[in-house]
Amino acid sequence: MESIWQDLRYGARLLINKPGFTLVAVVTLALGIGANTAVFSVVNALLLRPLPFREPDRLVWIASGASKPASGLVAAEADLSSVTTQVGNFSDWKRMNESFEDLAAYFAFFDYGGYTLTGSGEPERLRGVGVSQNFLPLLGVSPVIGRQFQDDECVWNGKGAALLSYGFWTRRFGADPGIVGKSITLNNEASTVVGVLPASFDFGTIFSPGSQIDLLVPFPICEQTDRWGNTLAVVGRLKPGVTLESAQAEFDVIAPQVQQQHPERNDNGAVLSSLQERISGRLRPAFLVLFGAVGCVLLIACTNLSNLLLARATSRRKEIAIRVALGADRSRLVRQMLTESLLLACCGAALGLPLAFIATRTLAATQAISIPLLKTVSLDGTALVFTLLAALLTGLLFGVVPALQVSRWDVHASLKEASRGSSEGGRGAWIRGTLVVTEVALACVLLVGAGLLIRSFLRLLEVDPGFRPEQTASWRVEPSGTYETTEQKLGLFGQLVRKVEAIPGVESVGLTDSLPLGRNRNWGVRAKGQPNTPENWQGAFPHMIDPGYIRAMRIPLRAGREFTEHDDAKSQKVLVVNETMAKRLWPDRDPIGQIALNGREEWQVVGVVGDVRHGALEQKANLEMYFPIKQQRDWGGMDMVVRANRPIESLVSSVRSALQSVDADLPNSEFQTLDQLVGQAVSPRRFVTVVLGGFSVLALTLAMLGIYGVVSYSVTQRTNEIGIRIALGAQTLGVLKLIIGQGARLVAIGLGIGLAAAFALTRMLSSLLFGVGATDPVTFLGIAVLLTTVALLACYVPARRATKVDPMVALREE
Q1: CA 71, CA 144: separation in Å to the nearest integer?
Q2: Which has the closest alpha carbon to 424: 799, 715, 705, 703?
Q3: Mind listing the pLDDT tens digit for each residue in 494-536?
């Protein structure tokens, strides 16, 4: 221990005496280790850390048999109706199965409705989720204060009750425990606050990324809710010892039996997967790629530091030779060099931790990225252990090569060179060159991967969403309980539209119950005249809109007409369909005037509009149909879309005032621009692209510095040779070719290895790409040109310095 303490003190003194070298090394390591810690914290929260529930490995997600698992960075639900199940099926599954301790559910379409809090301060629109009575007990979540829902609160028209989220309780009620048992007014009806959820349970970040959930309410499992169709997202807890495979085998038998007993229900099977896989499985490839990328950045930093330590060790050649001559053995020298490396690594880790802390806090607080569990990202004990291990491994990685090189030096030769300076042998030059080739190859792999993702992201942004988001915003309007009938709601929305249309700068206003790139559902539809067979029924996305919506969204009208004020409850029931639905249902005829059947109702097609990418920009448009709100009663709240002829932000206060003038109890502070809507939809892809792009830029910078350092060091070592060449008549161009050629050879080798490795590894990115192949030649060629250009520039600076060597000075030093 005494000798180790001596090595530590000696190493610390050496580092303090070389502040420039130490600063460069510590900052480089801080960036590398800090970035690794931050990315590990994200990976830990999303993929490694168990869900914050009791025995989470026994929790299972039970999806409809019609569901298609999302992959890559596409939204988890392209269509909720194909993921959810009917209340009757849920009840039968729960009764008939023997694999699960219990099944629970929540209302998956909660975002179609909302809760307006009034009676205490400014009216506020809240997001609440209806859950079955056993939902929280099944997960193993208990209120931090208060109780669970009771039987009389979980029936149709039961007592109003609510469990507040911890964040909402803290923000709105100042964390007052006295709120439990008190009544609050939601949608003009009294509800009792029965409890407060723990801070560790955030429904939105787990089950609905990007949504802020303020409260949970009871959802009745009854005949009335069964009529709503596929509305429940189902979670089950396996019995001890039961495997997912055996449970799936049982449901493969149960689901057809249920369908045979109840043919009137939607035809659903059941696909089981672990809840952890359901929540974050689709993101696993993306974050493993990021983790590998940030590891590559740290390896590049290590190669740079190895080169720096090799150069520094050369300048210490005499000191080390004297220590050996005085009796120090080779192992002591290696230990001393590794001690210095570990000191640097620990200093880098200490500086990197605050950087990682800032990065993780920023990620956890952002609302602009729809990634599950992102709010739970933090520097916990596991991350700190990872940082310590990363520091130790990093210190060994960049310290072992210089240490071994020093241990092989010839002591007598080193002492003889003391009077005329030291030089680097061929072995040292070969090692330094190998390190440069390694970091060029690693940088090339990262740059190719980032280039593919950037091109993919740009291709995605070029996709026509089917509407124009510029200078447009939407306000969610939830009528309170005072508007009981459809006619009263229509009167309210009519006043709102007229008030907002009168605002100077407003171009058009429209209403819809579902904006694109957000909520999802599915209704069955078929063309009249076709046989009533399952294959003729198609699933289509229904929209309830007013006459101004298509114009406000600038969805192109392809044929026929839009809705008018005359399309009301007393007129012919009419329908506008998108191009995909028109081609699917009436491929060989004009869709205008055709009749579509939705259940037992007939709707005449009066217009065809362009396709809108509703589920995700990556996915092709599905069937969509638009109903006039005056002819439908199956809607609650509405999104009011406002298009302006100037920046929409300048009209926000005027629109809020208009809403308040119509009904003072309407929440008016919540709005989003449609540009934000599109941005939220592509946020996971943008996040991965930006982070990987940042790592790649850092890798390119480190590689450039590494090339510069090697070539610059070589020029210093060859000053005498260059001076002699110039004295013998070498021209500037010849010296430039000599020095740049040395660097170019290393770059060419590294580039060749890197491109070959990238060609093999980028296939792992296939699920993350859109519109670009994993071996896209444009990307590979572009990165090769970029890396070559940057490398040659890094070689040019020391080469230019070499041309200015004074032959007389060089020869005199010789």
Answers
A1: 36
A2: 715
A3: 999 999 999 999 999 999 988 888 767 788 899 998 888 878 8
Pair 143, 195: CB distance under 8 Å: yes
Q: How far, in whole angstroms, is CA 333 from its chain's centroid?
A: 47
Of 175, 77, 103, nearest to 522 by C-alpha is 77
The Cα–Cα gap between 269 and 271 comes to 7
Q: Which range among 2-6, 177-181, 514-518, 744-748 has the greatest average pLDDT?
A: 177-181
Three-state secondary-structure class, residue 154: coil
- Cβ neighbours for 736, distance < 8 A, ≥ 6 positions apart: 796, 799, 800, 802, 803
Q: How does pLDDT run across 466-504, given as a tens digit for each residue?
A: 999 999 999 988 887 677 788 888 999 999 999 999 999
Given a contact cutoff of 8 angstroms between Cβ atoms, the answer to whether 231 and 268 are in contact is: no
Contact of 553 with 521, CB cutoff 8 Å: no
Could you count the other beta carbons within 10 Å of the beta carbon of residue 174?
Answer: 8
Q: Alpha-carbon Rg of the chain, whole angstroms? A: 33
Burial class (CB in 10 A: 0-12, 13-18, 19+), 565: exposed
Burial of 88 (0-12, 13-18, 19+ CB in 10 A): buried
The candidate with the shortest Cα–Cα distance to 314, out of 413, 397, 393, is 413
Tally of CB atoms within 10 A around 325: 12
What CA–CA distance (Å, rounded) separates 16 from 741?
A: 37
Can you list the positions of beta strands (E) in 470-570?
472-477, 506-512, 523-527, 538-545, 557-560
438-454: b or e for each residue (b if 16 or more CB lie within 10 Å)?
bbbbbbbbbbbbbbbbb
Average pLDDT over residues 306-316: 73
What DSSP designation does 80 have? G
Per-residue pLDDT reduced to its tens digit, 361-415: 988 888 777 788 888 898 989 999 999 999 999 988 888 877 777 666 555 554 4
Buried b vs exposed e over 521-551: b needs ≥16 C-beta within 10 Å?
Answer: bbbebbbeeeeeeeeeebebbbbbbbbbbbb
The DSSP result for 353-407, as a single string, is: HHHHHHHHHHHHH-SS---TTGGG----HHHHHHHHHHHHHHHHHHHHHHHHHHH
Query: Do the bridges between strand 189-196 and strand 161-164 make them parallel or antiparallel, or are there none, so unpaired?
Result: parallel
In single-letter form, the type of residue at position 774 comes to: A
| pLDDT tens, residue by residue, 142-186 | 999 999 999 999 999 899 999 999 999 999 999 999 999 999 998
The DSSP symbol for 523 reads: E
For the stretch 643-681, pLDDT in tens is 999 999 899 999 999 988 988 878 777 788 999 889 888
Tell me, what DSSP letter sits at residue 265?
S
Q: In degrees rounded to 5, what are phi and psi of residue 145?
A: -140, 155
> Would you state the structure tokens that stand for residue 810, as one six-digit string?
């060089």
* Torsion sign across C-alpha atoms 206, 210, 216, 219: negative
Task: Show the tokens assigned to 478.
Answer: 């939830």
- Give the pair of three-digit tokens for residue 695: 């790592």
Nearest to 548 by CA among 463, 481, 638, 667: 638
Kind of pairing, strands 574-578 and 557-560? unpaired
Question: Sign of the CA dihedral 355, 360, 362, 363?
Answer: positive
For residues 715 and 719, what is the distance between their CA atoms, to the nearest angstrom? 6
Cα 530 to Cα 588: distance, rounded to the nearest angstrom: 13
Residue 359 token pair: 């990065």
pTM above 0.90, yes or no: no
Burial class (CB in 10 A: 0-12, 13-18, 19+), 690: middle
Report CA 237 to chain centroid distance, whole Å.
28
Amino acid at 654: S
Place of tokens 């929280």: 136
Instruction: For residues 706 and 712, give the distance between their C-alpha atoms in angstroms, rounded to a whole number.
Output: 10
d(CA 758, CA 749): 14
Distances (CA, A) of 101 to 58, 235, 254, 736: 10, 11, 16, 77
